[in-house]
Design brief:
Number of helices: 0
Strand order of the largest sheet: 9-8-7-4-10
CATH topology of the largest domain: SH3 type barrels
CATH architecture of the largest domain: Roll
Number of strands: 10
CATH class of the largest domain: Mainly Beta
Distance between the termini: 30 Å
CATH superfamily of the largest domain: SH3 Domains
Order of helices and strands: EEEEEEEEEE
Largest sheet: 5 strands, antiparallel
Number of domains: 2
Shape: elongated
Radius of gyration: 15 Å
Helix content: under 10%
């Protein structure tokens, strides 16, 4: 509350910003939803992320987690991912409750699907 951070990147849809986080490892940064930050200054020159926002590590109490066609519990289940596996994050939902991941081989619904953020630990970088 009231802290100020340098903005490093803006997501393509403008709903997330990558912030430099002082006091952590050199070069440490993290993503924050623009719903929870106040932005000041000019952002037209910020680089936009090329599609990967970090890595989602599945962290569920069960053995697997549903992968949905859309970012909604009402959406069709297109497959499952196993607990403690990792996938590239391609996008965050507008409400910040879901992440779109590259779908593992064997699923027939294109190359991506949505998982609930509450069951994910985000690791930045590759």
């Amino acid at each position: 509350s009231g802290a100020t951070y340098d903005v490093l990147e803006l997501s393509p849809d403008g709903s997330w910003v990558r912030l430099r986080v002082p006091g952590l490892d050199v070069g440490a940064s993290g993503w924050a939803s623009t719903n929870f930050v106040s932005l000041e200054g000019e952002f037209g020159q910020l680089p936009q992320e090329a599609g990967v926002f970090g890595v989602a590590v599945i962290s569920t109490l069960g053995a697997r987690l549903r992968v949905r066609a859309q970012p909604s519990e009402a959406s069709a289940t297109i497959g499952y991912v196993r607990n403690r596996t990792s996938y590239a994050i391609l996008e965050f939902s507008q409400d910040g409750k879901w992440v779109r991941i590259g779908v593992p081989e064997g699923l027939n619904e294109g190359d991506s699907g949505w998982i609930a953020l509450e069951f994910v630990t985000i690791r930045m970088g590759q």
